[in-house]
Amino acid sequence: MIEALMNAGQRLAEALRAENAALARLDLGAAAELSRGKRLAADAFAAAFDATHRSGSRAEGEERDRTEEIARALKDLTAENRRLLERAIALQSRVIETIAGALRPPGPGTYGHRGLAREGEATPVSIASRA
Fold first, then answer.
1. Residue 46 and residue 75: Cα distance in Å, rounded?
2. 70 within 8 A of 6, measured Cβ to Cβ
3. How far apart are CA 32 and CA 34, in angstroms?
4. First and final CA of the chain: distance in angstroms?
């Protein structure tokens, strides 16, 4: 049981490392593609943890050292994942706010052609995106 738990922990750590790398380079498309693998690895880890707990298995000696090492790595990787996800969400929010602001018609007190006041006239907007 302990070996299955360690293997599941290693797979989860690998999934987190890959997603963190994509998030660090702000490759949000790649991060989104990796999220399914991360969820599957997290589910497998949770199932292995539950099975190990129910069986009463305990790690001893070198096996215990290895499980503690994996646990520390997962703790660090999940903290980094959370930080990077929060940064990505904040960035996406700013992008959406910027686009929404650009699409908002000018308010009262703005002037248009020949200095005449505009009454909520929408202005043309162009948005470009590179994948």
1. 14
2. yes
3. 5
4. 44
Radius of gyration of the chain (CA): 24
DSSP letter string, 20-78: HHHHHTT-HHHHHHHHHHHHHHHHHHHHHHHHHHHHT----HHHHHHHHHHHHHHHHHH
Taking the model in full, what pTM does it have?
Answer: 0.74
Q: At what angle do helices 2-24 and 61-103 cross, to 10 degrees?
A: 30
pLDDT in tens, 56-111: 888 889 999 999 999 999 999 999 999 999 999 999 888 888 888 777 665 555 55
